[in-house]
Amino acid sequence: MDIEFVRSRFIKHFDGKTGNVYASPGRINLIGEHTDYNGGFVFPGAVDKGVMAEMRPNGTEDTIMAYAIDLKDRVDFKLSDPNGPRASWARYIYGISKEMQKLGVPVKGYNIAFAGDVPLGAGMSSSAAMESCFACGLNDLFGENKVSQWDMVLAGQATEHNYCGVNCGIMDQFASVFGKAGCLMRLDCRSREFEYFPFKPDGYRLVLLDSVVKHQLAGSPYNDRRNSCENVVKHIAAKHPEGKFETLRDCTWEQLDEVRAEVGEEDYKRAKFVLGEKDRVLAVCDALTEGDYEKVGEMMYETHEGLSKDYEVSCEELDFLNQIAKDNHVTGSRIMGGGFGGCTINLVRNDLYRQFIADAKKRFAEKYGHEPKVYDVVIGDGSRKLC
Ligand code: GLA
Question: Ligand 1: distance of its center to the CA of 125 in Å?
């Protein structure tokens, strides 16, 4: 995807004039899944794939003319329309515009054409890439770039909550806005403090295997998982009126055991996964600092096991990809992102890479009739204005 491609479509679909071009990436996450909305830690990085948009004020009060280049779909709508557009892609534009207005940005009518190369439904956060790209553009075109990066992250998250039906955490929008080439970022989702970790595993590489099974997070099992976690916190808080319990981050293993019977096995298992995952992120950071990639890999397999058996966000295809990784002595492998389809992320030794990919393609195709898609991870930069 390049600027000229997006620009040629922008010119063709609107009045021949050019605008400004912005880009934002999708993300990977080495470890720390479903911990963000539980006040825990995550360890994502931006990728070299994302969304690119050309935008230009069109002189109207609040008419947005939007063209999704990849879908060849055009939708025009007014920001003052309380319902907004129906097309799911256009709801991101409507939602982020409304959220930026709430932050004091005087958004007026504009034209926008955008395209993307983050695979949809792969768990690499194409939606956060859209939100942060459009937020970056609106901040620049209408807001004198006064809105902070964190406020843009939160505006993207609020777009998901208020206009798209997904009660997500902040990991994806954070990674998309703050990403830095060559670095993973350890984020404490409670305090919002974060640290860049240069990531160049010597002798290993990261590769994603996309099952091409689509997940649908909206109004879905994702929100159920979040509700389970919140329910456990509510029960623990009721037992300990002296304490302050906002998220599972504030809860101990003992407190979780105390409420096991009352919350039921399903919620218990979900909370158990989250408590373990919080510790695993920190253990992975230590292991990385020591250059102990085998330890990192062990933790990744543990996460997969927990996401599959306790959090129950895996599916047959992802468990199969994980098994193929094990069979090929891959150092670490796990589901990445929200789950219910999408990718596994694999930390694999350079000398095992070819054989692993060949075996995964062959066995997956034999079982499911198509090969998984393979993406070699390149860690790229966050949201930016290109021209
Ligand atoms: C989705 C959400 C994130 C996060 C992950 C799971 O990507 O958007 O906020 O919860 O799932 O780690």
Answer: 8
